[in-house]
Structures are given as C-alpha cells and as structure tokens.
C-alpha cells in the first residue's frame, strides 16, 4: 500500500480538534487491555501512522472502533529492529502509541498493527526481507502483540516482497513460531496477509506466498486483497471488480485449503479498497455508491474483514486529485466512507478447533538399508483437542514410513520410523508428514538423506557450513537437511559457496550428489573442482514450492587426501540454484 508523506487536510485537523476533549477523557480512563478477539466481521480502515495525526483522535472523530495501523518497518535493510515507520525515535514501546491504543481498547475497539507497506517491500525494510534470523522476526511480532495487547497483526506483502523467496519463507516460519508462542501462552493472535490482486484474484506470486505458508506450518487467518490500482488502462467498475476478485480469491483458497468449506473460505477473505480516485487515476474511482454495493455483498458472502486506504483520505477536500494521502479526490462528506462501512463490524468470533504439527528432528541421514526415527508432535492451536490421523508421502522407492501410534489426540506425539532397503537410491528426499482432523489438515516436512551402504559410503557437506563469498547467504529451509540452505549464489552479487577439506582416500573420479532448489525455472551453476571449472544446468525442482529438494549427480575428479576444493558460482550474471548439501 502507498506510503507517501503529504500535508494533512484541514478538515481532518478540525475534526480531530473537535474530538480532543473526549479523547483525553477516554485515555485517562483507559486500563490495561487484553488480547480480546476481533469481531467475527470487522471493518478496520488503515491509519497513516507516519504523518503525525492523533490515532485515538481520528478514531473518535470518524466513529471507527477498529483501525489498521500502517506501518512497522526496519530502519535500514539488513536490520532486525522493528520501529514505527522505520523511525528509531518511535520504537515498539508503550510510550509510542500505547496510550492511544489503550484508549481505543477501553472504548471496546482495537487496532491491527501492520508490518511492511509498499516502501518497505520495495526497499528491503520489511522485517522478513531485512532480517535473516527467523527467531528475531517472530520476536518482533510477539513484542507488538504483548506491548499493545492486540489480537491480530497484518503483514502487507507487495512489490519485491512477493518475489523475495527467502523473505517469504522466513516470514511464514516466523508466523508459525509466533502462533505456537501464542498458543503456549494462552493468547489470541491472528495474522492477516495483505496483497495486491487482479480483478480475477491473486496473481501467481500471491498464491505462492500462501502455498509457502501451508508448507511452513503458518496459519493465515485472513487473505486481504487490495482491490485497487489495477492499471488496466480502461475504465473500471470498482465494486464489480471487488466482487470478481473476491470470488476468484475463494477459488484459489479452495485449492490451497481443500479441507475448508466454502463458508470457511469466505471467512478468510479480507477486502481493502482505496476510496475515491486511486493511484492510477479517474478511470479507477471507488464511489460512495460502490461502498454501499460492497457492504451488502460482503455481508451476504460472509467476508471476514473490510478496510480501505486510508482514514486520512476520507474527506472531499481535493476533488479531481488522484492518489492523495490526505483526501479522496471525489465530492463527499467527511467520514462518509467510514460511516458507510462501520455497520459491517459485529458478531462474536467463534474459536474453532485447530492444531499444529511438527517433527523433531526435521531431518535424518541413513545408509541404504537403515532406518531413521523422529518424534511427530501435535498441539492444540485453538478450541479443544481432537483426533489427528498421521500419514506420510514422498518417501523414496524402497522406503516405508510408519507411525506409532498412527493416530493421536492433539497435544500428544507419535514416533515416526522411516525404513529403507539396500535398493533405496542415494539422495535427499523431502517427506511430507500430514495430520488430518475434523478441523482440517496440517503438514510438516522431514528430509531424509540416503547414502550408499558399506564402508566406502560418502560424506555429506552442508552448504551452510561452507565458505560463503559475495552475496551468498545461509537462511532457513525446513525441507533441507540441517534446516538451512544457501541462496544468492551468482547473480549481480557474485555469490560463491566453497567447500574445502573435501576428502577421499584415493585419487580418481567420484559421484557428487548435489541437493538444491531451483523454483520456477532451470538454473546454471559453475562448478570449479580444484581449479577446473565447468557449467552444469540444474533442472527446475518445482514451479512454486520451496519444499521440494532436487538432487543432481555430477562426476568430479578428486585428489587423494583432504585438500580438495569445490566451488559453486553463477554463470555470467545468472543466479545459480539455492544449495542445500553436496555428498561425495
């Protein structure tokens, strides 16, 4: 969503001044709030926290009980510190917005803090793109929840954040960790994912974000689509586009969450409009009549969340101006859109049953003919405990997976045993472990690495433990052996991964098995063995999934002893695939 600094409309300032006495009184009476769940259906327009307006003052003036606060960002790319608007002078602390939020909560409302925003997603200062430590990202989400006693966090994912695959995985892993933390501490914590849309639903990058969330065990409570800024070059009927985008999203969600009913899928839908004239111009104008149409449609479909960008635009102070942060650009009364949408909020949130699933350890290595075990644990994520049936898929030929017991009550665990035969081929295999209950299903990945049997079996070298050069960096990978991979090899950053100390008893030709990820396309890599380079093409591992590990066997010539060096780099400016391990 936009983040542009502009002068505030005079009418907004006057409205805030008129409400100031009431705000002060409610703030003084505010008491510590709890993480009260939001209504089953909630209207929460975005509040531009970066321009100095009073949060509680505008809430009172506009009559909005619920607001989405934009945005929380890191001050610089590479930082793991979360601040309001990326400004170190406004950190996540009770001293910054705490009394305003407490005032809103004391009046029966709440806020939804939002991480990201277009400027952060474009500049690398969304915390999931900026910070490479998943635990630190999760801690930032948890800090916001506890500091302000909120029950939902919004993640605004657009522009470069939709294609930063490492950031996408980190974000979803951190959400899964924060959700597990909330469950363990008896807190209510929801996550909404806000993404741009076409008039027929999300594009492929948005779908991939949600697919990765499933793969990483992150529960997405609301998929919130921004139904504006289409840039089609034609005049759009914005209410019609909203309805078609929402219907398209539900179809996409049905493919990602096949166990959910149609009503449950609509209950995952969020809609964010840009009231008045959007950034494209007058051909994309959301009118006051459109608001009435969308409100009726959203109620009929059971949409979870309505919002708009942005509260400070909800006035008619700049008729004919598009894309302003301080006015809608159309003739309207002050707070007309707020008043139109406010009746949407209501209903009691029913906490349904849900569970989480994990495997520990998340990977194991065996020689062909051997077996490995892991503990598959479940936990009650919400509601009550339920029966969870365990299954597995993706085991290599000749291998079997057994669970003891094969069904557990959520909160209990099972022992998973993966048994191989002498015929099981060497390689790295992501095994999908799925738990299925009445409430739905969840999956986690266990990575099995199989080596050849006998005393001459090879050795595995993790890429994350190798010497990294240039832009190459190690990051989390739940499907990879050891839980890590190396990305940004080659490309403009000239990233390299160098394995030193590769040891063999005798000189000769050996088979090197490379475990890697190449999502969406085949990628070349230059492999240099003891100074001799050649380019090798790595096939695509999956069109969109980051849970599928590919293996490629490459013949290498090695010296006797432990002085062998194997380096991976890019071919020209082309990036190489992400690297998990090599086994020689």
Task: Report the CATH superfamily of the largest domain.
Answer: Glycosidases
Number of domain units: 3
- What is the CATH third-level topology name of the largest domain? TIM Barrel
End-to-end Cα distance, whole Å, is 48 Å
Radius of gyration: 26 Å
Based on CA inertia axes, which overall geometry fits?
globular
**Unreliable sequence segments:** 3-33, 453-457
CATH architecture of the largest domain: Alpha-Beta Barrel
Q: How helical, in percent, are the residues?
A: 10-25%
Q: How big a fraction of the residues is strand?
A: 25-35%
What's a quick, concise take on this entry?
The chain is an alpha/beta fold and 584 residues long.
Keywords:
584 residues, alpha/beta, TIM Barrel, Immunoglobulin-like, Jelly Rolls, ten-stranded mixed beta sheet, five-stranded mixed beta sheet, 24% helix, globular, disordered N terminus
Lay out the secondary structure.
Layout lengths: L9 H20 L12 E2 L2 E3 L6 H8 L3 E8 L9 E2 L13 H9 L3 E7 L1 H6 L3 H4 L3 H15 L3 E5 L8 H20 L5 E7 L7 H12 L6 E5 L11 H19 L5 H5 L2 E6 L1 E2 L7 E2 L1 H14 L3 E5 L26 H6 L12 E7 L2 E5 L3 E12 L4 E7 L6 E5 L2 E3 L3 E7 L7 E11 L2 E12 L8 E3 L4 E3 L3 E4 L7 E4 L8 E9 L3 E10 L5 E7 L2 E7 L11 E9 L2 E9 L8 E6 L1
Parallel strand pairs: 1-12, 2-3, 3-5, 5-6, 6-7, 7-8, 8-9, 9-12, 14-21
Antiparallel strand pairs: 3-4, 10-11, 13-15, 15-19, 16-18, 16-20, 17-19, 20-21, 22-32, 23-26, 24-25, 26-31, 27-30, 27-32, 28-29, 28-31
Helix pairs in contact: 1-2, 1-3, 2-3, 6-7, 9-11
